[in-house]
Amino acid sequence: MKEGSALPKNETYYHSVRLDVEKCKGCTICLKHCPTEAIRIRNNRATILSERCIDCGECIKVCKHHAKVAVTDPLDIIHKKRYAIALPAPTLYAQFPGEHKATAIIAALFRLGFDDVFEVARGAEVVSYAIGKTLISQDRTLPVISSACPAIVRMIQINFPSLIENIIDIVSPMEAAAKIAKEEFARKHGVPAQEIGAYFITPCAAKVTAVRAPIGQEESYVDGVISILDVYTAMNAFIKEGFEPFEIDRASAVGIRWAAPGGEATAVGSRNALCVDGIENVMRVLEQIENNRFDRLDYFEGLACVNGCLGGPLTVENAYVAKNRLNRIIKHAEQKKVNRTAIFEHAQDTLRMTKPIEPNNVLQLEGSIFERLEKAERIEQVLASLPGLDCGSCGSPTCRALAWDIVHGDASEMNCIHKLNERISALASQMIELERSTRFSSPQEGEKTQLRAKEESSHEAFRV
């Protein structure tokens, strides 16, 4: 499923992750793996609750039927503007077998039709400097939380709104790269910035959403997001054909390390930093941070995917193989020294977010205080009546989620297969008792009893 930038938007939420209803079989695999409980199974098909989805792509990874897809931009979007700059994520470098330098990969991007290539790893260098200076010069709420992974930021908005103030107010390396790339290209070639498009080559769906519905910015500096999956085959063919190297200002190991867990924390230079990858692991640590369990922690790097961006849902290579390959690329890049004094000096101010990050109150009950208390009490009452197995057979991920859905009118107790079996067993017992009672009554009474039994059973069945 591919669409351009003119995709329809929900009035409140935009999402890259979409459901292909025709391929969905109604299994509960995605239901059980969604970290924000954004999926329900209704009428034998999955549905995604837009307000809860964070576009982490976990459902894309686990769906055996390929019913979850990421909507990205097609390659021909680069022709929408006069000049096109490729913004390769450092993850891209680790996707090609036998390549332990980025030179051939960058050359392949030029052959795809881009006029210039600006490595996102260069943007990561600048962001690392800006964050490091901020940690030293400003009194911040600790631990400071990275803003680089948009899926984690959106999860904090939903599940951990009290930690929003901890998120660093500096844009991601992708945004920094797009901004600096346009400025440099316009200055170098003497062309208007409006004629330049910057296009990110992405390993994940969350970056698409971050561009279409930015957090902390009115508008993204990025003009399109292209999946690694979509350019891999053509790029691989170009690499095998051979190439002529193109001269560009190359990134150092400092920025390339951001593709793997711990790379950001190392680049920022925090002495007491913690990196956690895998969204369920991140959720557990955020819970502990919220409960003041890490009082000496200065910086937290949270990555939604296991192995960081190397494990993104739109990558080609096995994440562990890619990690090993990236380490070799980093060794080659370590020879380059970073000397970007002019960019670094103004980066701390020009790369600040321009809008506050707001909480997403989807998990809060609506209404007056009295109404919220009443709903909360009803949820607990319904939950107490449920088996507590969290089996997902009802189409909700947990019994608590089903209780929430019942109170909000989106489900009934009969969605629970265990409650349904209890009701059916009770009805069967009643029918047996009624049948036995008719054997000892007069024919006339027996007919009346049977008639009453049929009426009662039909009404009961209708209620079920």
Account of the protein in words:
The protein has 464 residues and is of the alpha/beta class. 43% of the residues lie in helices and 10% in strands. The protein has 17 helices and eleven strands. The strands form four sheets. It has a four-stranded parallel sheet with strand order 6-5-8-9, with helices on both faces. β2 and β3 (45-48) form a beta hairpin. α3 (103-111) packs across α8 (228-241) and α16 packs antiparallel against α17. It is elongated. The model is unreliable at 1-11 (pLDDT under 50).
Keywords summarizing the entry:
single chain, 464 residues, alpha/beta, Alpha-Beta Plaits, 3-methyladenine DNA Glycosylase II, Chain A, domain 3, three-stranded parallel β-sheet, 17 helices, elongated, disordered N terminus
What is the element layout, followed by pairings?
Layout: E1 17-19, H1 29-33, E2 39-42, E3 45-48, H2 58-62, E4 68-70, E5 83-88, H3 103-111, E6 116-117, H4 120-137, E7 144-145, H5 150-159, H6 173-189, E8 196-202, H7 206-212, E9 224-227, H8 228-241, H9 253-256, H10 263-268, E10 273-277, H11 279-290, E11 299-303, H12 319-333, H13 341-350, H14 369-385, H15 399-407, H16 417-438, H17 443-463
Parallel strand pairs: 5-6, 5-8, 7-11, 8-9, 10-11
Antiparallel strand pairs: 1-4, 2-3
Helix pairs in contact: 3-8, 4-6, 4-13, 14-15, 16-17
